[in-house]
Amino acid sequence: MLLVNTDYISGKELETLGIVKGSIVQTKNFGKDFMAGIKTLVGGEVTEYTEMLNQARQIAVKRMVDEAQTMGADAIVNVRYASSSVMQGAAEVIAYGTAVKYKNL
What we know:
- The chain has two helices and four strands.
- By secondary structure, the protein is α+β, with helices and mostly antiparallel strands.
- It has a single domain (about 1-100), classed as Translation Initiation Factor IF3 (2-Layer Sandwich).
């Protein structure tokens, strides 16, 4: 499945199938949260959270691709990511875009 953040794919004429999305609400792990708290004392990247959010984005993308495949899509254009805090210690990560099928020329 081709994923692009543009509204076109070079050399392809596209048929729009609809919006697709995938999301996950990820919570902090107590052990990692503790280590991240210590890291705030010395500064620097909080790699525990970076890894957690990277994993959450991968899951969200997989769910978006799965939805597009059920629609018979060849690709997803205008792919975007968003995240928000839904409660203390939990964040939602969402991936969304437009499922498209290549037109036969």
